[in-house]
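FIELD: query
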Amino acid sequence: MKIKSAVFFPHLLPGLTAGLLLLSLSGCKTVREIPYLQNYAEYQWNDSIRPFDITIKPKDELFIFVHSSNREVSAIFNYTEPQPIDTKQLRATAQSGKLRYFPVDNNGDIDYPLIGKINVKGLTIEQISSLVKSKIARYFTDGADYGVKTYISNYYVSVLGEVKSPNSFSVSSNKINVLEALAMAGDLTVYGLRTNVKLLRELPDGEYEIHQLDLTDANLLNSPYYYMQQRDVLYVEPNSVKAQDAKIGQTTRLWVRGAAIVVSLGSLLYRVLE
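FIELD: result
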């Protein structure tokens, strides 16, 4: 009977149950907000959006490789001429320091051998290759077989915040979209706020702009910010559940768990000794 009179925990059950119910509802809300592109059935492609091609900006670093059967002429523009000529071999040669490197200055110019200043600001990779090819044509005999390949060596994007592996990632192709960048970072955690992902972009004049992206809206695919540019940064904010979790604190969470165990044991003893 003494033990029975000491069991006073049942009157705490309503409050504790309500608290646990609120936490449960918060968790359910988070689960409902996790899927991407939720309104895909209503999505319509915007025909006015052109296929994306990365364009050159100041502070880019270019590798431009001239290949031809006349190695003496092509050697004027290259440090070495690797064979076979493919993107993988070209990148490996450039990274080894054996290929000429062309930084883009603040005016959008590169200083090219024998030609001098070439303005590449706002041009695509293909346009730069065509432009350089036309400018060096006079150094090759008529009918000579030659070509130009270009790529950006410092094309990388950064992903921060509530993702599994925040980091900066090098882009090997000439484009990357927001979802691909998030995949490289291991995707968002369950605490990531999917409706308000921030994209930070540096403008050619040095200023920055910030854009809000909603990953749950299929119209993201029509956004002009769906594809990421050089040195873009994605920041994923924590959602309300994570914020509340941080506010409660580790000590309080342990206390609540301990109280729940004690209440459960007390309720069990009460029923057994009743």
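FIELD: remark
The first strand starts at residue 61 and ends at 68.
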